[in-house]
Amino acid sequence: MSQTPPRGWLRLSGPALITGGLGILAVLALGAGGLAEPDVATWTAAALTVLVLAVVWRSARVVDPEGQPPLVPTRPPHENAPPYVSIINALPDPVLVIAAHEPDDLTGRRFVMVNDAARDLLRIQFEAGLLVTAIRDPQVLEAVDEALFGGLDSQAVYEMGGAQARVLKAFAKPLGEAPDGSRLALLVLRDETDIRRAEQTRADFLANASHELRTPLASLSGFIETLRGHARTDEGAREKFLTIMSTQAERMARLIDDLLSLSRIELNEHIAPQGETDLASAVMDVIDALGPLARERGVTLVPCLPPRGVAVVSGDRDQIVQVAQNLVDNALKYSPREGSVKIALVSGLTADAAAAPLRAQSARLSLLTPDHGPDLYAALRVTDSGVGLKREHLPRLTERFYRVEGQKSGERSGTGLGLAIVKHIMNRHRGGLAVESVEGEGATFSAYFPLIPGSLALPAVPSPGAVTKPS
Amino acid sequence: MNEHIVKSYEDELNTLTAECARMGGLTEAQVGDGIDAVVRRDTTLAEAVVARDERLDVLEADIERKAIRLIALRQPMANDLRKTVAAMKIAMNLERCGDLAKNIAKRTLVLTEAEPMSPLTRSIERMGKLVLGRLKDVLDAYTASDLDRALAVWSRDDEVDEHYNSLFRELLTYMMGDPRTITACAHMLFVAKNLERIGDHATNIAEIIHYEITGAETIGSARPKTDALAKEI
């Protein structure tokens, strides 16, 4: 055998590759040109063209006279890579090429090529490896098998769990046989989380709005009826009814505001926020804003904040302000007159330390735990001096419209959405939320945000073996 | 190119891990579908879950056979031996999870005959999501050999317990309020118990991963344990 690679392959792949590349560039340009939903078929077809060429080219180049299988490329992904690699890597959708030898060897499916999007999504660290280590979902694996050995295009819905649950559509397409005899298939994943979320949010909104708005609405129409009827001439009753009506109308407005902001947050929940925010200054603003309300209720606000610049987190300032506001507002509601609300900010904690209980003998529950994220967090802790929460209420606190029994609805009027909003914002920020309560002494809510790596001026907690992940 | 492919020792070991991961994926699907069946009162899905359970049994037997074969023929040492034993033990735990998921599905068939109880179903759904996330995390830790993630699952077992205790109280309130709901509530209680035990199996798997990676058998006694229920009974 000669040492030169088979010429036919190279002759074929050169111009054809350029055509495929141009094709995909055209599609990319088209997508950028304002097409809201790029046609799946076009995408897949273009990706398919490039990938078939890519695999054929790679196989032709790697298979040497000694017959070494082309499955494990040894060079790093981007160095000296042929042009198609950067094209595939630039694709926004995760793409994997899967190879298999025998139908019966179910665990023998390997991914032999993955693009950057797939590497990010599936946390793949290697260029090639066993498919099940990246994707375990039986439906997706079946779809891949169908493409590999049935020679059919197939689809599956791939639901990834985790804090920010994602739903993807998996398209598997057969790529035929590689020169070494193994069969190849292409797996393209498309993120449909947005669509699913929009559907879910709409359904939730309708259900909540129709149910929760009904009560104040019924009371409003009741009073209107009465004012038109026998209370028409009663000056005192009219004044009283109008006050109640205006309270109910305000409640409805608040409810609608909260429902809308919850819907908005939920829609973007899987997209991490951009920008930097200084927690200390955001919290200070909230304390200033709620000062008058606290004075009115006879509750003292006790802030314990670090200097500015110590707790800088990545996040949306408005949403962070909303978290602080909802938590402090809640604490004010549950603190008695002459009571106090402590607002503390601690920076440089690990996730475990941020969620750890502050007092012995307390009931504690993590309402939201971040997935494996950065190592250090800044925690906002709001402690009220109320009667505390019973342990059995803790798991349900972030449920929409959940109210702790025996809570007076008149005086402490909330929409029942405050903590749900806090939880969703924290989840969007890849943070966490924990509650701790001692009956008779009060409750503490801890919301912790991931610190921007390297922003911590004072290393409060040394973290051995800390790995900074590329974001 | 008709060369004979000889599987190396390394390949055999990796296959064992991969088989476990595949079984894990199937278990996740079973548990997820079991929860969905209860929440959506979907009898077709419940029957599918019951029917699919056999596949898990077959997989477990297969992993065990392969592991024993590997021990007999290759006589693995240290790391490799731990990997083999871990695969066997994890398969066992996953199989139990599958049984519990099947049990949840079976109860769905009874529950759909009763009136729907939406607040309770929501609580079950929330607990189910939590447990499913736990299972996913631990399996991710296993495939990535990530000790930190495994330990995170291990140390957060109390969250599932808190949910279980809260559900227990909720169910009691229902049953005391209306004795006609007792049948359905009792089944719900078992569904919750099954979920809690799936959470325990996830914790077990985390311990096995710890053993596989470090070789140390116990992690320590730092795990927070809630005995609120014990105090009340």
UniProtKB/TrEMBL annotation, chain B:
Pfam family, one: PhoU
Annotated compartments: Cytoplasm
SUPFAM superfamilies membership: PhoU-like (SSF109755)
Domain of life: Bacteria
Keyword field: Cytoplasm, Phosphate transport, Transport
Major location (coarse): cytoplasm
Keyword Transport: yes
Signal peptide: none
Ranges where the PhoU domain occurs: 22-108, 124-209
Family under the similarity heading: Belongs to the PhoU family.
Subunit structure: Homodimer.
Protein task: Plays a role in the regulation of phosphate uptake.
Protein name: Phosphate-specific transport system accessory protein PhoU
Biological source species: Phenylobacterium ferrooxidans
